[in-house]
């Protein structure tokens, strides 16, 4: 039996199931803040609501909400072994499994795949809208720089207003943006930061009678202004747009919605889990939207890994999952069970439990 890795429990506990790897960076910041607020209350309604980490932009936190499939939705991902041919078939329609998914086209779509795409697209709506706004703003700023246009308050406001209305460009509205982005400030730093929180406080945490206010009903206790900081330049706006696009992340710019839906990485994207009842579910991974935890709703499972399948034929299997960590014995038991059940692995590349190091 496998449980989710501890640092990703946050994802299962979160009402919105925001992606655990992103939440974890904010949890580290909360842990260092020595606040009395509980983590999610601090993150959404307390001082944490002002924080936008360069290594995990707030935009990505808000957009990366993992889909936890219902029992009915899980039927779209259920897979069975056809013993007579050794292939993997979708239980929903009997079609051979192909993972990762091929490019979208009328000839490759089925009723089952259309239902899955619709579920994922709901999770990508905000990303697509913001990507369009950021793309348009970048074009406008670059045009202004090329033409030598002066960055007047009116010109800056015209470019940034749509993005600010969508909750972005905090760097242009918060004079303490850099200080808040320090993941682990020292005790001395935290003490000197007190003034930068109180300046943006809009309500108390308590009623006049000493009762704790329901944050969900009353909203955040802290809020940034919608107006821009004084004396900004076009370069400042470009830097803020870059932050929203992930320029400060360890791996660089974040993928677009289309890149997440169909990553241009051969052999990457197919995932599977074996639930506690031995049923296999598989899907195409969509970063920040559909992961192994989507197929388990954050619960325990027997096994989780990655898989490549062409027309039902397994080409590659790997025991790697960011959410679950199997043992070598569990991996060997899975392969033995699959072979006994008739799954053809004769042409499959069997991945190792320990990942090979990337070449320097």
From TrEMBL:
Record's keyword terms, sorted: Cytoplasm, Nucleus
Domain of life: Eukaryota
Predominant subcellular localization, coarse grouping: cytoplasm
Keyword Cytoplasm: yes
Cell compartments where the protein resides: Cytoplasm; Nucleus
GO cellular component entries: cytoplasm; nucleus
Protein name in the entry: Iq calmodulin-binding motif protein
Record organism: Chrysochromulina tobinii
